[in-house]
Write a structure and sequence with these properties.
By secondary structure, the protein is an alpha+beta fold. The chain is 25% helix and 22% strand. It contains 13 helices and 27 strands. Strand 14 and strand 15 form a beta hairpin. The chain starts with 6 loop residues before the first strand and ends in an 8-residue tail after the last strand.
Length: 557
């Protein structure tokens, strides 16, 4: 039986329930309430409810607070629906959140787990997923001709190159995310790559110098771990996990949500991709959706960089569709999404369990769509070529963008942070840097951070009366500066240098430094990102790159 057919609306409760027994195909008969038979596992007769996913609105349930007059079963006050957020790159794993309930839900999740293909990338990524840290997932779309109906796509005989690649950075506080597209024609060095063979042995694939980025996958047995290592070497941004999909992923996911809205500034009739759409808004799914993301000769200058922009518009639209109310309140669509996503994805073993993919989805749901930025690695034409076919990093822009992502600063929040944090600082007189006395403690930052800060303060900022006091007695989440009332002018000067907000300033007592003089105490917390990097992001300027956000509808041109 199709799992989607097993979700049945119970008219007594107004909730959808997963029926696994022989009566799964028929709804319960309305009538007087009677105790539900309990199965041996204590579940409600093989039924699994999806709390809060009622259509029409949920009725009062036994045990619910009575908000009506005495003697009547009242209804709970209607809650305003929370903004529903989700991301494409989990491939619909948010659907798993609503299915993971009760014994039947558990068994279904085990079924879904059998759909997922995993690859052991060894030390190229993390062995686990952390819900308390920022994380980076490399999303790879290959040009391998796998799957029914894909024989005519991609390069014939391709081992599966990295055709479309996006590095997704999700901030530690989940307020923002950045999707960084990496051009397939970018010239990079591919490092030596350890790969795991099917028999469990390891083979090191020799690296390549000065080649297209897309060759980091597929050739000579290079697995996604090789692509992860290549990205980290080229950008300096560590990659924690990967998700890889082929042509089928676009077709199955768009079909599962009944199509994705797209917008064109001009009509398209592309002979190569077979895409035919009028100007304005249309809806694409299946083969037509795949043609849309593969088309290059009908947009911009007909190159890969303009195709990347179109793909970013498409991904934002698919994300909005997946987070829409008609998707989230439809059990049938959620089941289709879960099936399509798990069958389409190959992931690393660190996130290979469906329960872990569910955790990833829950973390991604926290990010507001308005703070999800799409951008592309800054590049310029390869100067070594007469006929321009490849690109190289634009060194005037790329390093700043990479630093912004690596330091967990949002592309959408830089200016806002500047205004907010500067206003929040203490007002008043500033002491000269040469008069600032401070002892530096490491309270959760990386090893060596106190000495790094000391060198920066003394050599570059003129705070010569500073000293390294070793490790703090306990770790702190946030960097703090404690000072006595008569040290307020010194504290303000140090706050300006470090980007400390008012909340990081702790009036208290002074300590005695190695010269026997009163000094402030600076404790570097887990939020410390390196000497010279202002903690509030106020010292950062928005990188000069073209970007868009996931909440905006944009038309391909």
């Amino acid at each position: 039986m199709d799992p989607a057919d097993q979700w049945v609306l119970n008219p007594e409760t107004g909730e959808y329930e997963l029926r696994t027994g022989p009566s799964a195909s028929r709804p319960p008969v309305p009538g007087p309430r009677r105790p539900s038979p309990r199965g041996p596992d204590g579940t409600d007769g093989g039924r699994t409810r999806i709390p809060g996913r009622a259509v029409p609105p949920q009725r009062g349930r036994r045990g619910a607070p009575d908000d009506g007059p005495p003697g009547r079963r009242g209804r709970r006050p209607a809650k305003k629906p929370r903004a529903k957020k989700a991301l494409l790159w989990t491939g619909g794993t948010m659907a798993l959140v609503l299915l993971a309930t009760g014994t039947a839900g558990y068994l279904y999740l085990k079924h879904l787990e059998g759909n997922v293909t995993t690859t052991d990338v060894g030390g190229a990524g993390r062995s686990d997923f952390s819900k308390d840290e920022a994380f980076n997932i490399l999303v790879i779309g290959t040009d391998k001709r796998t799957g029914k109906g894909n024989e005519g796509y991609g390069d014939k005989g391709s081992a599966g190159h990295a055709d479309t690649t996006i590095l997704l950075h999700v901030a530690k506080d989940r307020t923002n995310a950045t999707a960084l597209s990496i051009p397939r024609d970018l010239i990079v060095d591919v490092p030596d790559c350890p790969t795991k063979l099917e028999d469990g042995t390891e083979k090191v694939v020799p690296g390549l110098r000065g080649v297209r980025f897309n060759r980091s996958l597929g050739e000579d047995g290079r697995d996604p771990g090789c692509t992860m290592l290549t990205v980290e070497q080229a950008t300096g941004i560590p990659v924690d996990h990967f998700m890889m999909a082929d042509f089928n992923a676009v077709k199955t996911l768009t079909t599962a949500v009944d199509g994705v809205p797209v917008c064109l500034e001009h009509p398209v009739d592309d002979e190569e991709s077979k895409l035919r759409l009028p100007a304005g808004e249309s809806k694409v799914e299946g083969e037509q959706a795949l043609a849309f993301v593969r088309t290059r000769h009908s947009f911009g200058n007909q190159g890969d960089l303009d195709r990347i922009k179109v793909q970013q518009h498409f991904l934002a639209s698919l994300m909005r569709k997946m987070s829409s109310g008609d998707t989230l309140t439809s059990p049938a669509k959620l089941v289709k999404l879960a099936e399509a996503a798990t069958k389409a994805l190959t992931v690393d073993t660190g996130i290979g369990k469906v329960s872990t993919l569910k955790d990833v989805a829950l973390e991604l749901r926290k990010v507001p769509t308005k703070n999800i930025s799409f951008t592309t690695v800054p590049v310029k034409d390869n100067p070594a070529e007469t006929v321009k076919a490849t690109v190289v990093l634009d060194e005037s822009k790329a390093p700043q963008l990479f630093d912004t992502i690596r330091n967990d600063v949002s592309l959408t929040e830089v200016e806002k942070r500047k205004k907010k944090t500067v206003a929040a600082r203490l007002k008043g007189e500033r002491a000269p840097a040469s008069e600032v006395r401070v002892r530096i403690l490491n309270g959760g930052a990386q090893g060596g951070s106190a000495q790094e800060m000391l060198n920066w303060l003394q050599v570059e900022q003129g705070v010569t009366k500073s000293e390294n006091a070793g490790n703090a007695p306990e770790n702190l989440k946030r960097t703090t500066l404690e000072y006595a009332p008569d040290q307020a002018a010194q504290a303000r000067r140090l706050a300006d240098l470090l980007g400390l907000s008012g909340s990081a300033m702790k009036p208290g007592e002074s300590v005695t430094n190695s010269q026997g003089l009163p000094a402030m105490t600076l404790t570097l917390g887990e939020d410390f990102k390196g000497a010279g990097v202002k903690l509030d992001g106020s010292g950062a300027s928005a990188p000069d790159v073209e970007k868009s956000t996931a909440d905006k509808v944009e038309c391909a041109s």
